[in-house]
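Support reply, case 0932

Customer input (verbatim):
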Amino acid sequence: MTKTATGPIVVINPNSNTHVTDGLVDALHGFEHAGGPKIECLTLAEGPFGVQSQVDSDSVVMPLVELVNERPDAGAFVIACYSDPGLDACRSVSAVPVFGIQDSGVLTAMARADCFGVIAIAEASILRHRRTMARMGVLDRLAGEIALNMTVDESARGPETFSKLVETGNALLERGAGAIILGCAGMARHRTKLESEIGIPVIDPTQAAVAMAFGTLVTATG
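Our regenerated output:
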């Protein structure tokens, strides 16, 4: 049998764009099952419309901490922004695990391939991502990171998004990537189709983080 935590996995979209949150709900629908932890996707109303700059990333730290403090019922938290804003601060006040989607996405990609690539939302995001990967000690596994140079909102529902994802994914494949991480939660709805198109694993980092959260909440019993 299985033993499950009673609290939900609370997935927080740190930007105020509800279309991104809707995409997360769709991407995570398949995780829910009878007897398992519930998944609750929230939009941080105080956040910018898209977390695209360092200032945007820093601006959501305290609102995220406040939200975590307001949810003592949670079994785990997932911060659904690839810059992992507020991850250390939220972990410092939370009694339950807090997962960042960049950490989770990178670890999952390395479990699927020797080298991975990242599709970033914008050039300005790449430096933030590299700082995290340097801290993780995984830059030698990075085949490359290429930016779409669009907004978070465009990544979620822009008419040209998928064609740009295919072009960028193929460019990373040529650089030696054996798996590709979608470097923005807004890209979640494109994962399955993109993987089919380019023929290598495509990692939605929010799915990766929720999978890890499930691993902490569901334990096998004899």
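We compared this against your earlier run and they match. Two observations from our side: The chain has a mean pLDDT of 91. The CA atoms of residues 114 and 141 lie 7 Å apart. Please reopen the case if you see a mismatch on your end.
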